[in-house]
Specification:
Elements (H helix, E strand, L loop, with lengths): L2 H22 L14 E7 L6 H5 L12 H13 L3 E10 L5 E9 L6 E5 L6 H8 L9 H17 L6 E6 L7 E7 L5 E8 L6 H5 L18 H17 L6 E8 L5 E9 L5 E2 L4 E3 L6 H5 L12 H16 L5 E9 L6 E10 L4 E8 L6 H5 L12 H13 L12 E4 L8 E7 L6 E10 L3 E13 L8 H6 L8 E8 L4 E10 L7 E13 L4 E14 L4 E15 L7 H4 L3 E15 L10 E13 L3 E15 L8 E12 L28 E2 L2 E2 L4 E12 L6 E13 L9 E10 L9 E10 L9 E8 L1
Parallel strand pairs: 1-3, 4-6, 7-9, 10-13, 11-13, 14-16
Antiparallel strand pairs: 2-3, 5-6, 8-9, 12-13, 15-16, 17-18, 17-34, 18-19, 19-20, 20-21, 21-22, 22-23, 23-24, 24-25, 25-26, 26-27, 27-30, 28-29, 30-31, 31-32, 32-33, 33-34
């Protein structure tokens, strides 16, 4: 409207609003002698399910009546008493002719769902659908919720491999409805017939398939369910994979090739790799104020001409951030590739710096340890109040806590150590340690068979957060699981019944004795083993005191007390066996040191492990035992992305025992873990056809491992084993050599240890040696 008209009407509008407010609240009283306002109309708003006529029928005020605020309030009370509305708000609108419109703004109680029906649902049960939709009898009816539930049903069917599923909401889409009816069309189950990659050159399609979640059906029957959301996410994963290796312009597209019946589909990923970018010049650090940028730049391992690699960049970041972090300063690096249109395929790498001033540790707070003792958590944090805040130690603390295996440590939830209020000006920064306790008790059942010990079972009861001092004081302690838990100790009961070997063990371990760097372990065991020459039993205990010296070295001292039984000696056995028949008491003191730098305990590809030990035994016999073993692992080849490693494994072992060593403590060779191509204990001095063991053993081995599949779960090995066992170090009579090949199968559902199948062929042997062409190990643990 024109500005002049607006200004003229403004006071009238304010006056009308004021009069409406006073009238609606009953506070505006008509002046004496003033004419009463007439009701022009009565209007109901906000009703959805209840007809307007039904509401106006309960209202006493009518058009043409005198407007009385008290009468309006009586009508409000009458409507609320009907129990049909949760709220009623009266309003009036003054009209230019002096009359008023009376509004009743009502809010209805929501309808209650009386019945839920799923039409056409054959592969999802009613209970699962109720949990999925959150719609059930007795709940308030919400059309919006019901429509969203329809979408959730379709998504669930899509996840189960039914991309043509649909859902229509026949009832429940209107506020007045009391019944919800979902009409579901499931559609056919679609499986992935094949997965193809086209256009890739960097790595093979088999390698790319290990980086996606979609899978094709196995043997034409199992798995391979098609999920469109997963295949869309696979495109993103492939792009991220390529970009992490320098293909910054990569483009991935997905094609679906449907079978005629619509029940199978071929997934085709088209790859346009583009150029693989190289780093131009040396990486630069920009924005740092606390030190010269060159001081950090010289720490970089990336050189001009190197391919852009997120692995190398992240390693650079870690080294630089740790360098500054050990000084008590927090620094964050943000790597930024800088491109120039004049140099395609090249980029300059800059590390943008964010830094904070030096700080010291304030208080340390721990949350989430409902059962675990506070000291168990704090001893994994190598920081103390008052010391310089070393930021790399925050990450080390997180790794230490995850390594305990008593707290949840997965992709979504991990132990964290963070600085509280890092932006505060105070020099002292408080730390917050957040953990979430995991299930620490487990029962494992396993079955194994190998060429050295026959078939055996395995039953293990293990508690990783044991507390030997937390004795239950009530039944609730036992039911809640708080009894004997919380000190970070380990308790293990293990039973291994078998055809040739049986072992029953109870063990306890305190990894931080009195919160020190020393560990303590105690175990009791009973063991029986059937050999060709005799049957052996061992019952006893072992006590170990250990200490971790640094990242690689550990040292241990142990005491073992055993009663060794030798029975069922074969007829004609030499004196080596007959002289130890019956029970034999033994006490041994042992010291050993170990250096371990392997990158994996299950399948090492880099690093080494060295172990040296000496033990002095007393009892029926007094004798020393010395052993030194060294294993080295070298990667000789790997794919462009670092997978598919070819590994050369080298092993050497030297063992020596005193001349009074009884036969049950002597050395034997042969078998899967020793010299393949020979039977278990098939390499040894021999007396009248009896293997009597030696006081000296020297073994060497070379093994070359080559992965056969892109996922590195099947690999071939070739090996050369050699060595000897003799009565003494100065009486070496024969040095044996064997060669062969084998396969390793990693089957995740059977446990972490691979199935091993080896064929060994003796090249150099002694006349008394016992040969064995095939050796194997396989097991199942759940």
């Amino acid at each position: 409207m024109p500005e002049r008209d607006y200004l003229m009407r403004f006071p009238v509008w304010v006056l009308a609003a004021w009069l409406a407010f006073m009238a609606s609240t009953g506070q505006a009283q008509p002046q004496a002698g003033a004419p009463k306002s007439k009701v022009a109309d009565v209007i109901v708003q906000g009703n959805r399910a209840i007809p307007t006529q039904s509401i106006t029928g309960q209202i006493s005020i009518r058009p043409g009546m005198d407007y009385k605020p008290s009468q309006v309030q009586d009508d409000v009370r009458k409507l609320m008493s009907s129990k049909q509305f949760s709220h009623v708000d009266p309003r009036i609108e003054p009209l230019p002719d002096g009359r008023v419109n009376v509004f009743f703004l009502v809010r209805e109680f929501p309808q209650v769902v009386q019945k839920v029906t799923y039409l056409g649902a054959k592969h999802l049960g009613e209970e699962e659908l109720n949990q999925l939709t959150l719609v059930s009898k007795g709940k308030p009816l919400s059309p919006v919720t019901n429509k969203l539930a329809c979408q959730a049903i379709v998504r669930r069917y899509n996840e189960q491999g039914r991309p043509f599923a649909s859902c229509d909401l026949l009832k429940g889409g209107e506020p007045a409805d009391t019944e919800v009816v979902f009409n579901i069309t499931e559609g056919p189950l679609v499986k992935v017939r094949s997965i193809q990659f086209k256009g890739q050159q960097f790595v093979s399609g088999g390698v790319l398939q290990t980086h996606i979640q979609s899978s094709k059906k196995f043997m034409g029957l199992f798995g391979g369910v098609y999920n469109s959301a997963v295949s869309d996410a696979d495109v993103v994963k492939l792009e991220e994979y390529y970009k992490s290796h320098g293909y910054l312009d990569v483009q991935i597209s997905r094609e679906l090739a449907w079978a005629g019946d619509g029940k199978e589909v071929d997934l085709v990923f088209h790859v346009r790799e583009g150029l693989r970018y190289q780093v131009q010049g040396k990486p630069q650090v920009v924005g740092i104020k606390s030190m010269p940028a060159e001081q950090l730049e010289q720490l970089s391992h990336i050189r001009g001409g190197d391919f852009f690699s997120e692995i190398k960049i992240n390693e650079d970041k870690r080294i630089m951030e740790d360098y500054v972090g050990y000084m008590g300063k927090e620094m964050r690096l943000n790597p930024v590739p800088v491109f120039s249109p004049d140099t395609p395929g090249l980029c300059r790498l800059q590390y943008e710096v964010f830094e904070r001033p030096p700080a010291r540790v304030g208080q340390i707070f721990v949350v989430g340890n409902e059962r675990t003792r506070q000291n168990v958590v704090l001893r994994q944090v190598p920081l103390f109040p008052g010391q310089v805040l070393s930021y790399p130690d925050l990450r080390l603390a997180e790794k230490n806590l995850a390594r305990l295996q008593i707290f949840t440590a997965d992709e979504n939830t991990r132990p964290t150590v963070t600085v509280l209020d890092p932006d505060l000006e105070s020099e002292f920064k408080d730390l917050l340690v957040t953990v979430q306790e995991a299930s620490t008790g487990s029962i494992l059942f396993g079955v194994g068979v190998n060429s050295d010990a026959g078939m055996n079972g395995n039953i293990v009861l293990n508690e990783r957060n044991f507390d030997i001092t937390r004795i239950p004081t009530s039944l609730d302690d036992l039911i809640s699981g708080n009894a004997f838990r919380g000190a970070g100790q380990e308790f293990r009961l293990e039973a291994i019944p078998g055809t040739q070997l049986q072992r029953y063990t109870a063990s306890f371990r305190e990894p931080f004795l009195f919160d020190s760097l020393f560990s303590f372990g105690a175990s009791g065991y009973y063991y029986t083993r059937r050999f060709d020459e005799y049957d052996e039993t061992r019952a006893g205990g072992r006590f170990t005191l250990g200490r971790k010296l640094n990242q690689y070295w550990t040292a241990n001292a142990s005491l073992r007390v055993e009663d060794i039984g030798v029975y069922q000696i074969a007829a004609g056995a030499p004196v080596d066996y007959t002289s130890v028949a019956g029970q034999n008491f033994l006490v041994g003191l042992r010291a050993n040191a170990t250096r371990d730098s392997r990158d994996s305990f299950l399948r090492a590809t880099e690093g080494s492990i060295f172990d040296v030990s000496f033990e002095q035994a007393w009892g029926e016999f007094a004798f020393p035992l010395f052993s030194a073993e060294f294993n080295k692992y070298v990667t000789t080849y790997q794919r462009a992305d670092g997978s598919g490693r070819h590994v050369l494994a080298m092993r050497s072992q030297f063992s020596w025992a005193g001349e009074d060593t009884p036969v049950y403590e002597r050395y034997f060779a042969g078998g899967f873990r020793s010299m393949r191509g020979f039977q278990f204990r098939g390499v040894s001095p021999n007396v009248n056809g009896f293997m009597t063991g030696g006081d000296f053993m020297f073994l060497n081995g070379l093994e070359y491992q080559i992965p056969l599949k892109a996922n590195d779960q099947i690999f071939m090995v070739g090996f050369l084993d050699s060595g000897t066992v003799d009565t003494s170090i100065d009486k070496i009579s024969s040095y044996r050599v064997s060669a062969g090949a084998g396969l390793r199968f990693v089957v995740p559902m059977l446990g972490p240890v691979p199935i091993a199948l080896d064929f060994g062929f003796p090249i150099v042997k002694a006349d008394t040696d016992r040969e064995q062409l095939f050796s194997f190990w396989m097991g199942f643990f759940r």
